[in-house]
Structures are given as structure tokens and as C-alpha cells.
Amino acid sequence: GEGLGNQFLSHIREVDAIINVVRCFEDGDITHVEGSVDPLRDLELIQIELILADLESLEKRLPNLEKKARQDKELSAQVDLIKKVITILEENKPARSYQSSDEQEAKLIKNLQLITSKPQLIVCNLKEDEVQGNQYSQKVADFGQQNNVRVLNISAQIEAEISALESEEEKQEFLESVGLKETGLSQIIRNSYQTLELITFFTVGPKECHAWTVKRDSAAPKAAGVIHTDFETGFIRAETISAADYIQLKGEEACKNAGKVRVEGKEYVVQDGDIFHFRFNN
Fold first, then answer.
1. In sequence order, what are the beta bridge partners of 211?
2. Secondary structure letter of residue 246 according to DSSP
3. Angstrom distance (rounded) from CA 246 to CA 275
4. What Rg value do the Cα atoms of the chain yield, rounded?
């Protein structure tokens, strides 16, 4: 946010998760704004900025809410919660440190749109020949383990080289030459899904295939509602094929012949890679 003050923070209040990319490589030709490489210091600076932004936001809201709460008892719970969260932020801890099993409190915290209440992912940017890790990324990995945050190692240098290659074969060969199984971008996408507790299901027709995203542990009607709300309210059943069966048997017809099509009801919990054909009442 240097040069912008903290204007950029307003743009990230509505995101679902935050990815912190931290420098974990030495290079005399690339200067560091702080003059030295220290990813833990960089992470701490970012976290303090975000905590201060949340603290400022809550302290601005509190006086007005306290006035309204005198006439509105429902607002009293929100005022009490804000005061609890302010105490945590004042201790330089993120809002997500506040753990509550109360469903109403969890909903209130979400509505506050605090930056530090959002799940985070840390990405260590390394040199091409150190992409498996070095002393800097190890410190970040230890930090992640202590704070229950996912940590990934990628090399922006490698990603740039891969993006310049045209065919999938060339990309795969290059990845193998540097000892990797997948691109950093693929790792980030996969781990972002896991951080957000998301899975993918599919709908397949004769002309096209669509991928849809739903929260892990969602029931089949909830998945149907992602496509259209009418599908959820009028849900009858879901004809289901696993992606693994569909790929192995090369299509829906072969899956039917092999008895791989299941009929699932309202209680069915969606699995990652399910292929659905929803039946519903109009």
C-alpha cells in the first residue's frame, strides 16, 4: 500500500481469503524495500497493518452502535462482540483468533467484514534452484505450522518460464526438469480451494461440461441451488456419477451399462468431482 496509504485495504474487505506472497530469496540485483530479506518480518509488518486497519474500522463504528444499542437490544450483542474483538486486536492478534461455537456470533463476525478474520495462505517466492525450500522458507513453514496457516513454495521465475511455453508436453517436461509435479499456479488454486473448504461438482451434457463450486460437506440440494435456486427448492433426486468412473469408462452411457450411476436423495453429501443430473419439480 505504499504510496496509496491504506486505500487498497478497502478493496480486500469483501474477499473470501487472503494470499500473502513473501520473498524468500537473495538477489543483489533486486532490492528489498526494507533493505534485507526477512520473510517473517515482512509477514509481521503485513499482519500489523491489517490488524490496525480492523482496529480503526471497529473503533469508528463502536460509538454510533453504542448509542443505537440503548434503544435496540439486538444491537447490544453486536456491541459486546465488537468490544471483545477490539481487545484481541489490541493484543496484536488477528480477529480470527476469537473462536466462538455460537452460530449467531460467527455470523456477526462475518458481517463485520474484518480483514484479519479471513483465512490466509502464505506463498514463499523462491529462486528456481531453491524451489524445494531454503532457510527462509523453512522459517515461514514453521510459522505456518504454529499458526495453522497453509504454506506453499513456488518460484515466480519458473512460473514465468512455464507461461512462455505453448504445449502441455513442453510444460510437463520443464516441470520434470526442475523436479516439480505441478505448476505453482495449480498449487495455489488447489490449496485456495482447501483453505476455503470448497469442492467442485460437474454437470455434463452432449455439447458442454460445466464445473460448479460448493462448500465441502454440502448436501445435494445445496449443490443444485448453486445452479439455480429453483433446483434447490424443488429438488427430488440427483443421478450421480463419480468423475473417476466417468473418465475411466469414457462417458455416461458406459457408466450406466456398468452400473456406476447412483440415485441420491436430499441427505446425500456432495463429493469432490461428482457429476450430477438433477431432477426437480418446477
1. 202
2. H
3. 8
4. 24
- Percent helix, strand, coil in the chain, to 5, is 50, 20, 30
Taking the mean position of all CA atoms in its chain, how far away is CA 112?
19
pLDDT digits (tens, 9 = 90+) for 123-147: 999 999 999 999 999 999 999 999 8
The set of cell numbers assigned to 5 is: 496509504
Q: Are 137 and 211 in contact (CB under 8 A)?
A: no
Cell triple for 194? 482447501
The single residue listed with the C-alpha cell 453504542 is 66
Q: How far is CA 25 from CA 13, 31, 110, 143, 240, in A?
A: 30, 11, 36, 17, 47
pLDDT in tens, 27-58: 888 888 888 999 999 999 989 989 999 999 99
Judged by DSSP in three states, 263 sits in strand
- How many of the other CB atoms lie within 10 Å of CB of 201? 25
φ, ψ of residue 134 in degrees (nearest 5): -145, -170
> Which residues, at least 6 apart from 157, have a Cβ–Cβ distance to it below 8 Å?
127, 128
The H or E element spanning position 98 is none
CB atoms within 10 A of CB 121: 20
pTM > 0.85: yes or no: no
Residue 180, beta-bridge partner list: none
What is the grid cell recorded at 111? 458481517
